Amino acid sequence: MTPMFSEQLRRARISVGMTQAELAAKVGVTPPAVSNWENGKIVPKGKSRAQLRQVLGPFDLTTASANTQSALRPTPFGVWLNRQRLAEQLSVAELSAKSQISVPAIYNIESGRIANPRQETVRKLEKALGRELPEDAKEEIREEAEIEGFGEFLDFDPHNDDDRPTSGGIYVLYDVSDRPIYVGQGGDIRRRLRDHSEKFWFRSPIVQTGSDVAIEDKGLREKVEKLLIRFLKSNAVINKQNVDRP
Fold this sequence. Notes:
Blueprint: H1 3-15, H2 20-27, H3 31-38, H4 46-56, H5 66-69, H6 76-87, H7 92-99, H8 103-111, H9 119-129, H10 135-145, E1 146-147, E2 151-156, E3 169-174, E4 180-186, H11 189-196, E5 209-214, H12 218-232
Antiparallel strand pairs: 1-2, 2-5, 3-4, 3-5
């Protein structure tokens, strides 16, 4: 099974709002089997392959274009949020008012641009909707966000001070096309982002979303930051020489 097939299987499952456990039950296999299919470790054959298509419809887009592959990936939480919001007949603006999560953040979560929202963001949206995200979906989100040896790589709304992380760590800011345009580090990321907020380049759509991973050791943060800036080269245009620093 090609990596493209694995990704299309994952997209098809999430697009219909199923967790791996729910799809496994429909197909008659274990949840780890579905996980292995989506990771490309095992190829579904015969009856299982036929049942996948029966449940999900045709999805083996082996001739998909590069544009299709570069599209935003659906996420379990984004699909769940969209379905629950529509079930409650709430507009994005109405859900924003109830949850105190910004309108752009909700749009970004539902579209997949914010893939791993912070736990506090998830809790606020669950409370506003009066429904809880299934535990197996939460576990899938945690597994996808985990970076072994560091912790979780989480997404945040850089324009909402309440959603900005307060831990020490590395953060990356992305523009409206998901291009990384700034890599930074600090002992308190929220404070560092406040330093940026008055600068012309920090406004949307130049800065649209952000991600961070907690690293408390200052020396390690500085090494990782320098490595990322050099690795991204001209993509991280704003801070490529560590120049935007108080």
